[in-house]
Amino acid sequence: MGNDNIAVFAANLDRLMTEHGLSNARLSKWVGLSRQIIGQYRLGRTLPSEQTLELLSKALQCDKDEFFVAQKRQRGGVMIPLAEWARRENIPVSRARNLFQLGLLSGAVRTEVGSMIVPERMHAPAGSKRAVRVAKVRPHWVPNFWTNFRVFLDQCRRDRPDIEHWVAYSAEVSLVAVYCWNNRVNYPKETRLPAIAAALGCTVAELIAPTMRQPEPRPKRPVHVEEMAYGWAAEPPQPVV
Fold this sequence. Notes:
By secondary structure, this protein is mainly alpha-helical. It has helices spanning 3-19, 24-31, 35-42, 50-59, 82-89, 93-101, 128-137, 142-157, 163-171, 175-182, 193-200, 204-207, 225-230, and strands at residues 73-74, 77-81, 109-110, 116-119. The protein contains 13 helices and four strands. It has a four-stranded antiparallel beta sheet with strand order 1-2-4-3. β3 and β4 form a beta hairpin. α9 packs antiparallel against α11 (193-200). The termini are far apart.
């Protein structure tokens, strides 16, 4: 077999062992080989004999052909072991796990034995080390805020196209800050949440609720003096007929 087959076999062996939570030592006892030989297989340095391949397939509860299938699809996409993904992205496995567990990346799936497989198409963000560090110390309500803030913005934009400007004015921040909140780049200080919620016509509890509740249609309100001074009307201009 060629080098391509060796690489595919090694990747699939590593994936199957990860999904079953097996170490080199444990699998070696099951198939009667040394753990060094198992390590050679996982590194893609050699291929097993037909007899050994039969033993491996029984131990890992798979068909022999599965070792030589280039991709395994699950839930509509190619899934690979977390360890393999981390090696490809050249980051530590612990950081890779944090990227998915902290919600910086999505799509990870837990197998029956508790190991993690992730979408192959995902890539680690630039500055992933800093992103994980920041995510670990951010308040617990931030992910909910990011989701709900965007929903409320979209709903308010129907009646007020310049809602981002009004939020920035109400919270006494720059327009860039509002754009950053909407794109999950950073988050506001907790002391600004009441002003943000008021500008969006909701409560702080609704703004940071774990499950977004669709707000009931709100009656149109009069124009505030501050809005008039700032140049925004409560109602969008009507088209000339």
